[in-house]
Design brief:
Layout (H helix, E strand, L loop, with lengths): L1 H17 L18 E2 L7 E2 L7 E5 H6 L5 H6 L4 E5 L8 E5 L7 E5 L2 E2 L18 E8 L3 H4 L6 E7 L8 E9 L3 E13 L2 E12 L8 E13 L5 E14 L12 E3 L2 E4 L9 E18 L2 E19 L12 E19 L5 E21 L11 E21 L2 E12 L3 E15 L2 E12 L3 H5 L15 E14 L4 E21 L5 E24 L2 E16 L4 E3 L6 E10 L4 E10 L2 E4 L10 E3 L2 E12 L3 E8 L7 E9 L4 E8 L4 E9 L1
């Protein structure tokens, strides 16, 4: 494997040296300009220079050229975003952390509809297939004004592909790579007749994974229907279905670990802390959107959506965990059904001014079913428990923008969120945009954010050692940032610099509670604060070469009442990312990506320690993708990830070796080196 990866690196170097350089490169990339249009920041079409937040915009070409295998990996290469997984298994949950906040502080949307799990508070971004994405908009900073609970660190809106007039889109792909990994995908879109069009995608992905019990089987399908009658009527219906089944190997035990058996069944090995734990997700989303703009000064938007998330977990205990014995466990089925409606009205009463008024309703139905397993993995009769709960939110919001002249713009808004459990929360936001020169933008944003407790936080059933807490209150705080963006040399050089500062009160934390006989339960105990800098640049020294560099410094602090003030767990102070792309004049593109993540505190002995007793080491990874287009329709690509097989950890957990009785703290290992070859036919 390493020899093959080394050969790929050498091949790329040779191509870069001998390939002809042409200023009319076939795949010239557009520069970043102040005229880029963003929808997510204000729910209306706004130019980048008119938005008070720092933004990231990625289009279909950015996605295709990237060596990323998933949405999480794709966003990991962007400024201010920290991507984490629970190890290197195929179905590992991918977490998006913005500016040091938790994954439950990032709102993830598909076509404007949240895909965040109400039971977990975070989104399963690993289930979103890249070939379904037309565009990604990331708005950093508080988004609670427009998107409610959870939009604290940032908002990621995934805009799916849709048909284009007079164009038939059709593409089929097949690929194979390391760990017996294969992917099949197909997509087709067109205007079938008149103003009616559709876009269909389908994917299948399987892998054995890097370790025992790290396999994955993934299937998904999506369909978007579009009725485009111009400004006066635009109707779209989008739906998708995602089915994922995978093993959960846990941490990697020490190399000296011997296999452990219970009743003749092997429960763990030196490769994986669990050989029997399994998980399955079945998610479906549907959204109907209606837009009408009968006049230049009036635009009406209506939306209705439905989400069904079903999660199944099969878990066995390797060791004796009170009150269970070794080999016992539980099966859990968690179902979340979310129904939502929203309407907003955009008015432009006079030149330079715009107003948006909206109202939103969301209903959450939660069901948790558990059954105990005996030490052979068989369900214990009479142990089934079922819990059902419902909560809902009602909200109204308003936002006003005013540009009195070309040099500056003001923004102010407020949202009133009414939660069926926690009452009313007012969420103001303010923004200022200064345009001293045509290619210079100075931005200021200040907003209040909040996150309601998740359904698991509130209602997790008492299973003998964990349970929820209905006395929790929402997390609240403020997020402030200031950004300078500058374009130079006909947009061949783009620079962005941001200072950010946020705080979070009543942070919810799961921990062992000695007053409840050792139960693990959540409580509002932490205060989180962070400040930092983001510096990014895109340089295009030649028409066929583009270089992106970014650096993020994050000083994230956690503090419990009357306890130590210390660096937040798993949050690196330093991150660096670099991306170099080359485009030849004969249809070839080569992209190299490097990523550095600094040291991260992984565990503190107790609440009064300000120095961690376990630290995850810093690491570098290097990815590479070579793509060649032939005969207009064929696309061949070869990609390698973590080329130099860097060994690194993502999280830690305790592991008890039942053969020796010794408990050690072990890491969830990051993915090793891999290679993947793909061929596509594009009509």
């Amino acid at each position: 494997m390493k020899r093959l990866l080394s050969c790929a690196v050498i091949l790329c170097a040779c191509i870069l040296l001998v390939a002809p350089v042409s200023v009319s490169a076939q795949k010239e990339r557009d520069a970043i300009t102040m005229e880029e249009v963003v929808v997510t920041a204000t729910k209306t079409k706004e130019k980048r220079k008119d938005i008070p937040n720092a933004v990231i915009i990625m289009d279909e070409i950015d996605i295709q050229e990237s060596s990323a295998n998933s949405l999480g990996e794709l966003l990991a290469n962007e400024l201010g975003i920290d991507w984490r997984t629970r190890g290197d298994y195929g179905g590992a949950t991918e977490e998006i952390h913005v500016r040091g906040m938790g994954s439950n502080a990032t709102q993830i949307l598909i076509n404007g509809v949240s895909i965040v799990s109400p039971s977990l508070g975070s989104a399963s971004v690993q289930g979103v297939s890249l070939n379904n994405i037309e565009r990604i908009e990331v708005i950093k900073g508080s988004g609670s004004l427009l998107y409610g609970s959870g939009a604290m660190g940032g908002t990621v809106n995934i805009i799916t592909k849709e048909p284009k007039r007079d164009i038939i889109d059709a593409k089929a792909s097949a690929g194979y790579g390391s760990e017996n990994t294969y992917r099949l995908s197909a997509e087709h879109g067109m205007f079938a007749f008149g103003d009616f069009g559709y876009y269909l995608t389908a994917n299948r992905h399987e892998t054995d994974g890097f370790r025992d019990n790290s396999d994955l089987t993934h299937k998904d399908v999506s369909l978007k229907l579009l009725l485009d009658k111009g400004d006066w009527l635009d109707v779209s219906i989008y739906g998708d279905y995602i089915d994922r089944e995978f093993g959960q190997p846990g941490v990697k035990p020490p190399d000296s670990t011997d296999d452990y058996f219970v009743n003749g069944e092997k429960l763990y090995s030196r490769s994986a802390a669990s050989l029997v734990d399994r998980h399955r997700d079945e998610d479906g989303h549907t959204v109907i959107k209606v837009k009408s703009k009968p006049y230049e000064w009036l635009c009406l938007n209506l939306k209705a959506d439905y989400t069904d998330m079903e999660s199944y977990n099969y878990r066995r205990n390797n060791a004796a965990v009170w009150p269970k014995v070794a080999g016992e466990g539980e099966e859990t089925w968690v179902t979340n059904k979310v129904t939502g409606t929203e309407g907003n009205l955009e008015l432009k009463p006079y030149r330079g001014a715009s107003l948006i008024f909206g109202s939103e309703y969301k209903n959450f139905d939660y069901e948790n079913v558990q059954e105990d397993l005996d030490d052979t993995g068989i369900t214990k009769a009479g142990t089934k428990t079922t819990m059902k709960h419902r909560v809902f939110t009602k909200s109204v919001f308003a936002e006003a923008q005013y540009r009195p002249c070309k040099f500056f713009k003001l923004l102010a808004g407020i949202r009133q969120e009414n939660h069926s459990l926690f009452g009313t929360e007012d969420l103001p936001r303010y923004g200022l945009v200064i345009n001293p020169f045509e290619k210079t933008v100075i931005k200021f944003s200040h907003g209040k954010h909040f996150k309601a407790p998740t359904m698991n936080d509130l209602y997790w059933p008492d299973d003998g050692w964990t349970k929820g807490n209905t006395d929790l209150i929402p997390e609240t705080g403020w997020h402030t940032d200031a950004t300078v963006e500058q374009s130079l040399f006909d947009d061949d050089l783009f620079i962005t610099l941001t200072y950010f500062n946020w705080d979070l009160e009543d942070k919810i934390n799961w921990a062992e509670d000695p007053t409840l006989n050792g139960y693990w339960t959540p409580s509002n105990v932490d205060t989180y604060k962070a400040q930092g800098w983001e510096l990014g640049t895109r340089i295009r020294p030649f028409k066929n070469i583009a270089l992106n560099l970014s650096y993020t410094y994050t000083d994230a602090i956690e503090e419990k009442k009357d306890c130590a003030r210390r660096q937040a767990l798993y949050t690196p102070e330093h991150q660096f990312k670099g991306n170099l792309s080359y485009y030849s004049d004969f249809g070839m593109s080569i992209t190299t990506t490097v990523r550095y993540v600094g040291d991260r505190p992984a565990h503190y002995n107790n609440s009064r320690d300000d120095k961690p007793d376990y630290t995850l080491s810093s690491y570098w990874t290097t990815d590479l993708k070579i793509e060649q287009r032939l005969f207009d329709h064929w696309i061949f690509s070869l990609q390698g990830n973590n080329l130099f097989d860097e060994q690194y950890g993502t999280y830690v957990a305790d592991f008890k070796d039942e053969n020796t009785g010794v408990t050690t703290r072990e890491e969830y290992p990051g993915a090793g080196s891999s290679i993947f070859f793909n061929v596509s036919y594009e009509y």
